[in-house]
Amino acid sequence: MTRVHTLLAVLVLTVLVGAAPPAAAAEPSGQTGATPFVKIYDPSDDQAWYINDHTFIQDARGTWHLFGITHAEPAVDDDEDTFAHATAPSLTGPWTKQAPVLETDPAYGETHLWAPHVIKNGSTYYMFYAGGGADGARHAINLATSTDLFTWTRLPSGPLFRDGAVARDPYVVRIGGQWVMYYTATSDPGGGNHVVAYRTSADLVHWSARSIAFTDPSRGFGGGNTESPFVVFEAGAWHLFLGPRGGYVGTDVFTSNDPFRFSADQLSGHVFSHAAELVNTDGKWWVSHAGWGQRGVWLAELDFGTGSSRYAADASSDPSGRVVLVSGADGRQEAFAGGPDQVWSRYQTVRNGPWSDWFPFGGPKFATLSAARDLDGRLELFALGEGRVDHRSQSAPNVWQGWENFGTAAHDLTVAQNADGRLEVFASGSEGIFHRWQAGGAWMGWEPFGGPADSVLATGLDATGRLEVIAAANGTVQRRKQDVPSGGWRAFEPFGTVPGVAHLALNRRPDGALELIAGGAAGTSRRTQVAGEWTGWTAFGGPPGARVHIGRNADGRLEVFAANGITTEHRWENGTGWSAWETFGAGAVGSGFGTNADGRIDILSGGRMLYGRYQVTPSGGWSAWAPAGGPLIG
Q1: Contact, 230 vs 10, CB < 8 A?
Q2: pLDDT tens column, 258-306
Q3: Where are the beta strands (DSSP E) in 330-431?
């Protein structure tokens, strides 16, 4: 039987080893998300290898250690018989590959080693892991110990316990005066519901009978969607991370006041991660991503919906335009502008600036552009012009392939990322909206999506990980939403009217709620989500007939920009509400918005000429406009 072995056996959280916060606390109002992931370690040499369920721990000298399931690609989960080991001076690297630790031992009934989790108690390191064979009824949670993190010795008495419900993915944490081990299982030895079980211990060796902390409605035997549980106290409540949910690359977060009682209706966020490992260090929360075919281990900053991340997960709020900015895997931004002869590009030579010279990038004339980053760090650029959509992508981070004809002609287009990391492109034309999406690394063909003809489009990912598509034409706005993260779609539904609607923008607040701005004949109009439900349209002011953008400051405050051919204006959240509209610059044909690695917003805007403006400090004041070179886009 093949077991889909996903999300991690999550990390060592040394800050949690000690007295726990009180179990009864106020529910946080925010939604959990994460920034884009950046690769920190690839175990491959002359052959591709993967890391799957893994764990991090820092030793007494400050060196970080990573342990994890490993195997050469392609994956063979029942042949995963050693644990990878790597070390680094910092969580972000550089990581050095070390000799593997542990090997399967037939005396312990092991044919595979899964999901290591390491903690430190006193001067001893404890590695809990799942070891077993083909007989799911004999699966065991095992223990090995070490004093230096390089040499490990199994517990002589054998497995800590066996659980016939295919027990695996242990995670151990101190809560109050006892140790608690969470792990994935099924409600019955022969199957039943997928659950998160837990046991308690006073000495890390002798464990109680199991109890259930979470029961999922899904049923089966073996791998399910309650794998790699991890429980942490933050923002006034307990959070349970588990998966795979919404696809192989997907982690759901559930929030409760009780660390031993979580339910499916307590969903509070989603992270685009497989084998998600949480780490709290230097005052920040981090979440990792790894797995089969994922090309190593990735890291992103985590936000529990409190603004604790400088730039937590958000949705594209400028779906297409004559100018776009997008950040690469290394945090450097790239800019693209649709010129009268072709697309032009430039890039930051180092993170946070400065910029290279502009250079010709090919593609159609006077293109409308949209760009996104794949989960593995590669950029993809889409250009609408000359009667069709063209596409150019990277074969590896910072390595571009040539242009390809991507198909149908369109009025507008936008690219979005599903909860499982797959990109999806939406394009409107005279026959309505069509879409294409990634499947197994390749792009599927165009399929009808419905909706109004020749509409303007915007997409956003809500707090539950489901995409929303907003489409507007002839003053009428429509909305379509996924049934489940990365899954099927509901039908389009009416979403109100905005006379003369010319442009739409979506962005996501730190608490996961979506914000929608429409540029119309009488100025802008606004809708926002409150407790997961949309308010009605309200007038929001600003210049008429404007293209709009919703930016998010590093401290989480939103800022709205609106530009027509006469003026550019902006207003922002000031802590008590929204500021008045303020002149921000001359009118613009196109404006691109990006975020530096340090959280400062960058703007590239203009018509006959391009000018740049940026925040001097994160969430702070703005520089003056300065010529930026590049093509004439007006």
Answers
A1: yes
A2: 999 999 888 887 787 888 999 998 888 999 999 988 889 999 888 876 5
A3: 333-338, 343-347, 359-362, 368-373, 379-385, 388-396, 399-400, 404-407, 412-417, 423-429
Q: Which of 407, 458, 417 is nearest to 437 (CA)?
A: 417
- What is the H or E stretch that residue 118 is in? strand 112-121
Tokens of 528: 């926002």
CA distance 319 to 103: 50
pLDDT of residue 25: 31
- Cα(213)–Cα(182) distance, integer angstroms: 8
**Element (DSSP H or E) covering residue 631:** none
State the average pLDDT over residues 571-591.
92
Report the relative pairing of strands 404-407 and 388-396 from DSSP bridges: antiparallel
Answering whether pTM is above 0.90, one says no
Residues forming beta bridges with residue 603, ordered by sequence position: 593, 613
Q: How far is CA 364 from the centre of its chain?
A: 31
Tell which residue, 448, 439, 396, has the closest CA to residue 421: 439
How far apart (Å, rounded) are the C-alpha atoms in residues 379 and 361?
A: 14
Query: Residue 345 in contact with residue 336, Cβ under 8 Å?
Result: yes
Write out the DSSP string of 482-497.
Answer: BSSTTS-BPPPEEEEE
Query: Quick one: 199 exposed, middle or buried, by C-beta within 10 A (0-12, 13-18, 19+)?
Result: buried
Q: Are 584 and 569 in contact (CB under 8 A)?
A: yes
Domain assignments of the chain as residue spans, ordered by start? 14-303, 323-629
CA 355-359-361 angle, to 5 degrees, is 120
Mean of per-residue pLDDT scores for the chain: 86
Which two three-digit tokens encode residue 158?
């054998």
Phi, psi of 15 (to 5 degrees): -70, -15
Q: Which CATH number does 323-629 carry?
A: 2.120.10.70
pLDDT digits (tens, 9 = 90+) for 470-485: 999 999 999 999 998 8
User: Do 218 and 193 form a contact (C-beta atoms < 8 A)?
Assistant: yes
CA atoms of 246 and 470, how far apart (whole Å): 21
Q: With contact defined as beta carbons under 8 Å apart, do 601 and 614 qualify?
A: yes
pLDDT at 12 over 90: no
Residue 216: is its pLDDT beyond 80?
yes
Statement: residue 221 has pLDDT above 80: no
pLDDT tens-digit map of 27-42 = 333 467 777 678 899 9
CATH of domain 14-303: 2.115.10.20
Other CB atoms closer than 10 Å to residue 388's CB: what's the count?
A: 15
